[in-house]
Design goal:
Elements: E1 10-14, H1 18-25, H2 29-49, E2 54-61, H3 69-85, H4 87-92, E3 96-100, H5 108-121, E4 128-135, H6 137-154, H7 164-168, E5 181-184, E6 203-206, H8 216-227
Parallel strand pairs: 1-2, 1-5, 2-4, 3-4, 5-6
């Protein structure tokens, strides 16, 4: 068990390997997504119990629209079902639900359930669960640049005043802390356009375990490894 003071405040997870897990088991890809929901529930609950400040999950990237129409439609139905089914989990664990990404492009019925879940949880005081939906790191930076450019043109912001903090204020994550720990399951070792600005100084942890099999013991392994690291942010530890 990792001591509280050595825990990350913000954990971000790339939940990879659903399809490969399903193929290995002889199932259709969609079965992997269904099983992955169980991992989401267990990891979310465990992080809330550990009083992690925020958990951000890469749930649907803006590149995922390139997948087959059948799979995308299934993912949207599953997302809607998840938002409805997990409201008791969110309520019982005092979780605040938020989202980042171009959610206005999601199906209207999904947007409706997302709004309901966020409204019902907005007065909670525990961990933030942030779902990255129709999200891409490059898209986020472009959207931020466009927003900042518009305000410069309007005279709201002066060019000489633009710095990291000003630019950050135009990001989807403007009201959130940056991730301390980025976990990726499924054996791949890349960040895949996820929180490109925000993970600049995050500790990275990769595992070959597919997301549908990722459970509390794997989270503990990641947290234990994180606790051993020294975070210098480009400086030196005396």
């Amino acid at each position: 068990m990792v001591k509280k003071k050595r825990l990350p405040n913000h954990i971000a997870i790339i939940m990879d390997g659903n399809g490969r897990w399903a193929r290995r088991k002889g199932f259709l890809r969609v079965k992997g997504h269904e099983e992955g929901v169980n991992s989401v529930r267990e990891i979310t609950t465990e992080c809330a119990k550990k009083h992690i400040g925020q958990l951000t999950l890469y749930a649907f990237s803006n590149e995922n629209w390139k997948r087959s129409k059948t799979e995308v439609n299934f993912l949207m139905r599953m997302l809607k079902k998840f938002l409805i089914a997990e409201r008791p989990t969110i309520r019982d664990n005092n979780i605040i639900l938020k989202t980042i990404g171009r959610t206005e492009a999601l199906p209207e019925d999904v947007q409706k359930e997302l709004f309901i879940s966020m409204e019902e949880s907005k007065n909670n005081t525990g961990m933030i669960l942030c779902l990255a939906l129709n999200y891409g790191g490059r898209t986020e930076i472009v959207d931020a640049a466009n927003g900042l450019a518009r305000d410069v043109k309007k005279g709201v912001v002066k060019l000489k005043d633009i710095d990291n903090d000003v630019f950050k204020s135009y990001m989807y994550t403007s009201d959130m802390t940056d991730p301390d720990l980025l976990i990726r399951t499924g054996g791949e070792m890349r960040v895949s356009n996820f929180l490109l600005w925000e993970v600049s100084y995050a500790e990275l942890w990769f595992t070959s375990v597919y997301w549908p099999e990722f459970r509390k013991k794997h989270l503990e392994e990641a947290l234990g490894d994180y606790a051993k690291r020294e975070r210098r942010y480009g400086g030196l530890i005396e």
